[in-house]
From TrEMBL:
Biological source species: Sinocyclocheilus anshuiensis
Region (Disordered): 252-275, 1119-1293, 1309-1340
Matches recorded under PANTHER family: THO COMPLEX SUBUNIT 2 (PTHR21597:SF0), THO2 PROTEIN (PTHR21597)
Secretion signal span: none
Regions of compositional bias (Basic and acidic residues) in chain numbering: 253-274, 1159-1181, 1190-1256, 1312-1340
Family per record: Belongs to the THOC2 family.
Origin superkingdom: Eukaryota
BP GO terms, sorted: mRNA export from nucleus; mRNA processing
Keyword entries, A-Z: Coiled coil, Nucleus
Compartments it resides in: Nucleus
Main localization (coarse): nucleus
GO MF annotation terms: mRNA binding
Name this polypeptide is given: THO complex subunit 2
């Protein structure tokens, strides 16, 4: 009892809880077999009878348990009593039957409910009358409620009357719900149709919470499981349709499929069973009850409900009403009126949106449920798009960051709406260009990253989420195939219209197919580009995305299967990019960023795209196959370049180049692209090209380099001075911080210097108006000094301090900062283009078919262009005169030559000429002309002879280390150098005028410098001809060596170089014959193995045969017999009047080494005389040079009267054998490095032997080390022999090793090491070894 009392104190409802517990225990113990547990339960319940009422236990316990407790007498009787009571309550009809009810009461009830409700009648008054009728006529209350619902159904527009009436009349929600359920079930017959009024009253009752949705939902058909099955079936059917459209069917299968489709259509035409759930959903949306509508839609598969047009339209109508106030306030375009919409009178409906924040209350959710089916209401589509546009403008104009952060959630909602609603809806709209343009007005406010992500979702995911879109995708592909099969150049216009119509709705699918076709068939590019003119702005943007996605496809290999060339699909897409982006106003940012990202990742394949885009959009063409006329035009101004510098004159590039420039500047991509390309050149070789074929690596390097040159040219010609200077850092920053190669750094900085100098010059001119020409030149020089002074300081950090012992930073900066535009005016090119325009004007005048207006316009255009060219020529002429005057003043301080002339030339070639001559075709010409200019300016300490000798003497390593395009440029450089040399060689008068009194042709150097009047110190004309012949021989020897290596790169490059220098080499008949035979052998060997080498060799061979008529015998090229001179020691001593001629003779004799043949007895006699003469010279003139000694030997040789013009066949044959053995022993089975090592060792041996016999002079000693010599040694008198002999083995091994790190040092090292070998061999010969006479490479 105490426990029970405690229980009662705990809770008031304790008896009920205990009764529930006993009920559960009763069920559990009744199932047990152990009787004692049942007994224990009975005792427990009996003990608790004092706290649990009997009635409560009788409600919840089994009759048998109650009987055992003694609460009832018999369980059976108790059960019978329960059945009777239930029957009486639920099944026995009340006494309110028709006999007792009076019909008059129902008639009055109907009359009461059907009266006019417009007056002062209220639901309260009517309810009182109804109560009176029920009481007076004994009416059944449930039947009265049913009649009220029936009348409400007939008068469903009077919600405000019937809802309060029903709410006041009834108290049980379940009763009302059962009545409605009974009404719905009545219409669930096979052909039954539920009236819309019933849906309306059910929706109204739900909205006012008079019934619960879950109670009514169970009365509706069809079942949810049936709906899910139907949805799955729709998806399956859509996929089958899509599969059939992509399959190729034979005619018999097509007819069978058509019959099946007809049967299915007939089945569909049969009336489907009524979907009461969707009907109720539509009614809920009509009255604005979004909460209950959302609950019903959640019970169904995604977008199943809105896939029914009635539901979609109802939801669209609701959205109209909600967004109307905000749309009117913020998004109506100027000039648009639009019809006002009547808001819902229902107070329970969602409130209309007044601000953008209100949209998040339910509008975005509704839009997401609507999905692609907004296509049913284009007006709502336009409203939502305009709201988004208005929001984006507010977002972009918002300056406060906290407010902007709050708006970010709304921004993400608009992006989701665009992804899930707007784009899918556009796919279902048939050819609606206006909606596409409207949507672009919204999308263009997003950055391209957001837009491209939306397009990616649209293309790759959206079409798989909806059965309708699956069908649409298949139909679009099918239609695209139909159009593309028939697209040609002739039917571009009609096909373009069809493509335009198809693209308005489904651009991603259409472009994906078109791009796939272009990747296979590149001849489609031109007609496709022309047919895209009917696209909308949105479609163009989607096209850009599709192109980038196609380029980035990871499943596509960017190399062909042979791994030596770039895949054709990538080349086709690159060509398409250039054409499309030039012709149509497509945003370039995404494509440029893609290329930048690929470069960041160390991939250079996609530079092909940038190259095409710049070429097509800016009209800047990069090719090494320029004609001489084009190259000449490229040295002029911008107008001349555009008219005569390119193969295809690309006109009207002003707008497209402006778009490209704006894209680069707006997204800050100009400098990053330049730096990445400059860095990627080495990356191609050392990082990217690790496992790639050498041929492909060379092509990628060339592509990277060419694109850099092209892109840098575009920036220089299109960016304003301020933009360029602001973006390009100084040259030392480029090299030291960004690790840009020096040639690329100066290439980027060069336009900046030119801009700054001109700006400063204009500023100085304006400060003092009316100044004379001479004063203008001084102002220009002052401007140059001000601008270039910081550059001179900056370049010092680029190289080691010892470099500046020979080259002044001023000279280095001047060389790298100037261009061909600064050195010479291409008068011929200007005249050529002006004459072309005059011919055009004449042709226009003579054309009688051309309309007068067009004639006038064309003539005006040609005349204006002619004036521009003439003005440009005049401007360039003035500029060149100023530059040459500046160089004339600077030249005395260019070269210090603290070490030797040889070392000065080495540094000049290594740091200036070689890096720049392979940078571009224009730079190749510039380098040759600059060398000539330095010579013409009579620059102190510059030896022209030595410079040309170092360039021509051995080109093997230089050629071998070039890529294909670099070979062309190097060949062009050699061609220009040979052109100059050939001009001097051709005429004594020209030689005397341009070289006779110039310090570059001195053969003796004195500490006092060049006095300009000592003719004996100069190399005379005939000896110069000997030197030129030696250079031709050296070129032949190097060429044959490269052709005989069998290496692909060597053969290809030397053939390219030989083709380039063909106008000036070979000029000697026997050298040409040797080359011809070797090239013929290459043609035979490579015909089947390497077709590209065969094509090159055949091309060169044909051109070489055509040049045979211009070749001359050796004795006409130079006089082989030298004039006899005294061999007395006195003639070889240093002196003011007698030193030049012997030295010249010595150099000439050395040049002919290997070309003179003597008998064995004569050779011995020559050796004895030479040894004797050397001893005398050593005694007479201890300070004389080894070169003079060698000259004496050669001179004695020349005094022997030998007939070297005609060689006997036998001797010729023997010489050929000897020479072949020599060449074979050098090449066969050895790498270049081994050969170099061997030659270096021989050089060291020869120097060791020679050291004991000959006293080293200042000139020779200084070449043993690149470290500057002391002043005492430098001030000694130095004698200069023929330039070849300055190349004897005097470079340290460290320099040799470094040549592998710098490409062009190879040539210098190879030259010197080979001369070392020659010298050591000569030394062995003089000590009694059998002499192997050198000879030109002979015909096999």
């Amino acid at each position: 009892k105490a426990i029970v009392f405690v229980f009662q104190e705990l809770r008031d409802d304790m008896p009920s809880i205990l009764a529930d517990v006993f009920c559960i225990l009763d069920i559990e113990t009744g199932c047990l077999e152990e009787k004692h547990k049942r007994d224990h339960f009975t005792q427990l319940v009996g003990a608790c009878l004092i706290c649990v009422p009997d009635g409560m236990l009788k409600e919840r316990l089994d009759p048998e348990t109650l009987e055992s407790l003694g609460l009832i007498k018999q369980a059976q009787q108790f059960n019978q009593k329960i059945v009777k009571i239930k029957t009486k309550l639920f099944y026995k009809q009340q006494k309110f039957n028709l006999l007792r009810e009076e019909n008059e009461g129902y008639a009055k009830l109907i009359a009461e409910l059907g009266q006019d409700l417009m007056g002062n009648l209220t639901s309260h008054l009517v309810l009182e009358n109804i109560k009176s009728l029920i009481g007076c006529f004994n009416l059944d209350p449930n039947r009265v409620l049913d009649i009220i619902l029936e009348v409400y159904e007939c008068r469903s527009e009077h919600d405000e009357f019937f809802i309060p009436l029903i709410k006041s009349y009834m108290c049980e929600h379940q009763t009302l719900c059962h009545m409605l359920g009974f009404k719905f079930k009545f219409h669930q017959e096979p052909n039954g149709e539920t009236p819309s009024s019933l849906y309306h009253i059910a929706a109204a009752l739900l909205q006012h919470n008079l019934i619960a949705l879950e109670d009514l939902y169970v009365h509706l058909l069809p079942l949810d499981s049936s709906i899910v099955e139907e949805h799955k079936r729709e998806i399956l059917e859509a996929k089958q349709i899509a599969r059939k459209l992509t399959m190729v069917l034979v005619p018999s299968e097509k007819t069978e499929d058509k019959e099946k489709e007809k049967e299915k259509e007939e089945e569909k035409n049969e009336k489907p069973p009524d979907n009461q759930k969707l009907g109720l959903l539509e009614a809920l949306l009509r009255i604005g009850d979004w909460q209950h509508a959302q609950s019903i839609m959640d019970q169904m598969p995604a977008f199943y409900a809105t896939s029914h047009k009635a539901i979609a339209i109802a939801l669209c109508q609701l959205l109209h009403l909600i967004v109307e106030p905000l749309y009117r306030r913020a998004a109506v375009p100027k000039g648009a009126k639009g019809g006002l919409m009547t808001p819902l009178r229902n107070k329970q409906a969602l409130r209309p949106a007044e601000s953008f924040d209100d949209l998040s209350r339910g509008v975005f959710a509704m839009l997401c449920y609507l999905g692609p089916h907004m296509s049913h209401d284009p007006i709502l589509f336009a409203k939502v798009v305009r709201l988004g546009k208005s929001f984006m403008k507010e977002y972009q104009n918002e300056s406060r960051q906290d407010t902007k952060d709050k708006m970010d959630s709304l921004l993400s909602c608009f992006l989701s709406t665009a992804d899930q609603v707007l784009l899918p809806s556009l796919s279902l709209m048939e050819c609606n260009a206006c909606m596409s343009e409207e949507l672009w007005g919204f999308f263009k406010l997003f950055p391209y990253q957001h837009r491209y992500r939306l397009y990616g979702q649209w293309k790759n995911e959206t079409y798989g989420n909806h059965p309708l879109l699956v069908k649409i995708k298949a139909q679009t592909v099918d239609r695209a195939k139909y159009i593309m099969k028939r697209l040609t150049k002739e039917n571009v216009k009609p096909s373009g219209r069809q493509i335009g119509k198809l693209s308005h709705s489904n651009p991603t699918i259409l472009f994906d197919y078109i791009l796939s076709q272009i990747q296979w068939y590149d001849n489609l590019i031109s007609p496709v580009v022309d047919s895209l003119k009917y696209l909308t702005s949105l479609n163009y943007d989607v096209l850009a995305y599709c192109i980038i996605e196609a380029l980035a496809n990871p499943e596509k290999e960017k190399m062909k299967h042979d791994d030596t060339t770039i895949s054709s699909w990538l080349q086709s897409l690159a060509s398409l990019c250039g054409a499309v982006f030039r012709k149509y106003p497509i945003e370039l940012a995404g494509l440029l960023q893609y290329v930048t990202n690929q470069l960041k990742a160390g991939k250079s394949f996609d530079l092909l795209i940038l190259k095409e885009v710049v070429q097509k959009m800016a009209g800047i063409e990069i090719t090494d196959e320029m004609t001489v006329e084009q190259l000449e035009a490229m040295t002029g101004g911008e107008q001349l370049k555009a008219e005569g510098g390119y193969f295809g004159q690309i006109r009207n590039t002003k707008k497209s180049s402006q778009r490209l420039k704006d894209a680069l500047l707006d997204h800050e991509l100009a400098l990053p692209l330049c730096l990445l390309m400059a860095q990627q050149r080495n990356g191609v070789v050392f990082s990217e090209g690790g496992e790639k074929h050498l041929k492909l690596v060379g092509k990628l390097y060339d592509q990277c380099h060419d694109t850099l040159v092209q892109f840098g040219g575009f920036l220089a010609s299109n960016l304003s001075t301020e933009d360029y200077i602001k973006r390009v850092p100084s040259v030392d920053v480029l090299c030291n911080q960004f690790h840009t190669p020096h040639d690329a750094a100066f290439f980027l900085s060069r336009p900046m210097y030119a801009h700054q100098i001109l700006s400063k010059y204009d500023e100085l001119k304006k400060a003092e108006k009316g100044s004379r020409q001479q004063q203008k030149v001084h102002k220009y020089i002052a401007a140059c000094e001000q601008i270039m002074a910081p550059v001179h300081e900056a370049v010092v950090s680029l190289h080691l301090p010892r470099v500046w012992d020979d080259l002044r930073p001023q000279f280095y900066a001047t060389f790298w900062s100037l261009t061909m535009y600064d050195l010479a005016v291409p008068h011929n090119a200007y005249d050529r283009e002006v004459n072309k325009l005059k011919i055009q004007i004449k042709a226009i005048d003579e054309n009688t078919e051309m309309p007068l207006n067009k004639k006038k316009k064309e003539k005006e255009r040609c005349t204006a262009l002619q004036d521009k060219l003439q003005e440009e020529e005049k401007k360039q002429l003035e500029h060149v005169q100023r530059v040459l005057h500046r160089l004339k003043l600077e030249k005395d301080n260019w070269l210090l030559a603290k070490s030797t002339k040889n070392e000065t030339i080495t540094k000049f070639l290594q740091l200036c000429i070689f890096p720049r001559c392979v940078f571009s075709a224009i730079d190749a010409v510039y380098c040759a002309r600059f060398v000539e200019l330095v010579h013409q300016q009579k620059t102190p300490n510059f030896c022209t002879l030595l410079c040309y000798d170092r360039v021509f003497s051995d080109i093997i390593y230089t050629v071998a280390s070039c890529t294909e395009n670099e070979s062309r440029r190097y060949g062009r450089f050699l061609c220009c150098m040979l052109e100059t040399v050939t001009r001097w060689h051709s005429d004594r008068a020209i030689y005397e005028k341009e070289c006779g009194n110039y310090p570059g042709f001195l053969t003796i150097f004195r500490a006092s410098g060049f006095d300009g009047g000592n003719k004996a110190d100069q190399l005379d004309y005939e000896n110069f001809r000997h030197v030129v012949h030696k250079w031709h021989y050296k070129l032949t020897k190097a060429s044959v060596h490269c052709l005989e290596t069998g290496e692909y790169t060597h053969i290809r490059n030397i053939l390219i170089v030989l083709t380039k220098i063909l106008p000036w080499y070979p000029k000697v008949l026997n050298l040409g014959q040797a080359l011809e035979c070797r090239v013929h052998k290459i043609c035979q060997e490579e015909k089947e193995k390497r077709p590209d080498l065969y094509a090159l060799a055949m091309g060169y061979s044909g051109q070489l045969k055509g040049r045979k008529v211009h070749m001359v015998p050796e004795n006409e090229f130079h006089h082989k017999e030298q004039p006899v001179r005294s061999a007395t020691p006195g003639t070889l001593q240093n002196g003011p009047g007698n030193t030049g001629k012997p030295a010249a003779a010595a150099s000439a004799g050395k040049a002919e080494e290997g070309a003179v043949e003597d008998s064995g007895s004569k050779e011995k006699e020559d050796k004895e005389k030479t040894t004797k003469e050397k001893k005398e010279k050593k005694d007479k003139n201890p300070g004389s040079t080894p070169e003079a000694k060698a000259g004496g030997k050669d001179k004695q040789k020349e005094e022997k009267p030998t007939d070297s013009k005609e060689k006997t066949p036998k001797a010729d044959k023997d010489k050929r054998k000897d020479d072949k053995k020599e060449e074979k022993s050098k090449i066969d089975g050895k790498s270049a490095e081994k050969e170099w090592s061997k030659e270096r060792d021989l050089s060291n041996d020869s120097k060791t032997k020679e050291g004991s016999k000959v006293e080293k002079n200042a000139g020779a000693g200084s070449m043993k080390s690149l470290v500057p010599r002391s002043e005492g040694v430098e001030n000694q008198t130095k004698r200069f022999k023929h330039p070849t002999h300055q190349l004897n083995g005097n470079c340290r091994p460290s320099v040799m090793r470094n040549h592998f790190l710098h490409t062009f040092t190879n040539a210098l090292v190879f030259q010197e090491s080979r001369h070392d070998k020659e010298k050591s061999e000569k030394k062995r010969d003089s000590t009694g070894a059998k002499e192997e006479k050198k000879q030109y490479p002979l015909m096999p």
